[in-house]
Structures are given as C-alpha cells and as structure tokens.
C-alpha cells in the first residue's frame, strides 16, 4: 500500500477506531505496511492527514446544504434532502463517526471546526425552516438518530445489507420529517 488515497483510508479507520488523539502516524504507517517517513512524504502531519481524510465528506455535506438553502423547503425538497442525507451517511460513516464522537473534543483542529460549523448550519436551517419547536426537535432527533444508528452499526459490526438499510432509513426519516398538520 503506498498511495495517498490508501493512507487516507487507513488513517480514517484508525481515527474512527482509536480516536484522533489516540492515533499516531507511526500506527497509521504500521497499519499501511509503510515506514513513518513514507506517511510523512504524503502528509506533513497527522492534522494534515485528518484534513485530507475528512474534507471530501465535509465538502459533500456542504454541497447538500447549499442546494437545500437555494430553494424553498417544499415537500419535494424535503424528500430530496432525506435521500441525499441518507446517501451521505451511508457513504461517509467513518467521517460521521468522527464528527459525532470527537467533533467537540477537537475544536482546536481547523477541519473539525468546519465539520462542527456544518452541524450548526443544519440546525440553523431547520430552526428557520420549521414552524414549531416540535418540528425542530423532530428534525434534530431524526437526523441525529439516523447518524448515530449508522455509527453504532459500524462500531458493533452489524451486517445489514446496504440497500435494506438505505430503504429503511429513507422511509423512516420521511415519515418522521413529514410536516406536522395543525
């Protein structure tokens, strides 16, 4: 294993498993079958490697939120958001694991500040797009719960087929996030 992409994958798995502070460049090099100097050839520091590993997920979530903010939040927009959010969660489970479990303890790491800002941006969007505290809480519980569920499945090695997981999450989130009728 020698590519920068391979190193990012190994590092992401280690950061999610052992934690950012509990992971060393030497451990990443060992897991990748390389010398530490080879890791440093590609990435100048552990922080740079973390940034390279999680930036694609942050950029994707940022794009989802940008698209959501551009148009009125209709039923169709809500449905599209649910599908994109579920796909994001499924594709970026390890990154979401880091954001959920380590985001607040890594506030001195710039890339995690960016991730934390996106979480706040999601909360602000729904606070401004919903008409009641119940709807805001419903969004927070639904989105946070879906993210935590997938992180837990990853941590406990639960093997549910991806298509079944996706379909179930889209259905459940769509039901939970349906507009509340007065």
Automatic annotation (TrEMBL):
Domain of life: Bacteria
Keywords: DNA-binding, Transcription, Transcription regulation
UniProt DNA-binding region: 24-43
Stored SUPFAM superfamilies: Homeodomain-like (SSF46689)
Pfam families in the record: TetR_N
Residue intervals of the HTH tetR-type domain: 1-61
InterPro entries according to UniProt: Homeodomain-like_sf (IPR009057), HTH-type_TetR-like_transc_reg (IPR050109), HTH_TetR (IPR001647)
Signal sequence annotation: none
Gene Ontology MF annotations: DNA-binding transcription factor activity; transcription cis-regulatory region binding
Protein name: TetR/AcrR family transcriptional regulator
Native source organism of the sequence: Homoserinimonas hongtaonis
């Amino acid at each position: 294993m020698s590519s920068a992409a391979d190193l990012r994958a190994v590092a992401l798995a280690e950061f999610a498993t052992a934690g950012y502070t509990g992971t060393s460049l030497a451990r990443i090099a060992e897991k990748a079958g390389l010398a530490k100097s080879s890791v440093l050839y590609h990435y100048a520091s552990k922080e740079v490697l973390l940034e390279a590993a999680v930036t694609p997920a942050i950029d994707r979530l940022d794009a989802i939120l940008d698209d959501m903010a551009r148009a009125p939040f209709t039923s169709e927009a809500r449905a599209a958001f649910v599908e994109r959010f579920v796909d994001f969660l499924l594709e970026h489970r390890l990154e979401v694991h880091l954001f959920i479990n380590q985001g607040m303890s890594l506030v001195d790491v710039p890339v995690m500040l960016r991730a934390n800002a996106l979480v706040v941006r999601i909360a602000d969007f729904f606070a401004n797009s919903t008409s009641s505290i119940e709807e805001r809480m419903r969004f927070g519980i639904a989105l946070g719960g879906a993210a935590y569920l997938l992180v837990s499945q990853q941590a406990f090695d639960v093997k549910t087929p991806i298509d079944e997981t996706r379909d179930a999450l889209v259905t459940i989130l769509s039901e939970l996030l349906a507009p509340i009728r007065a």
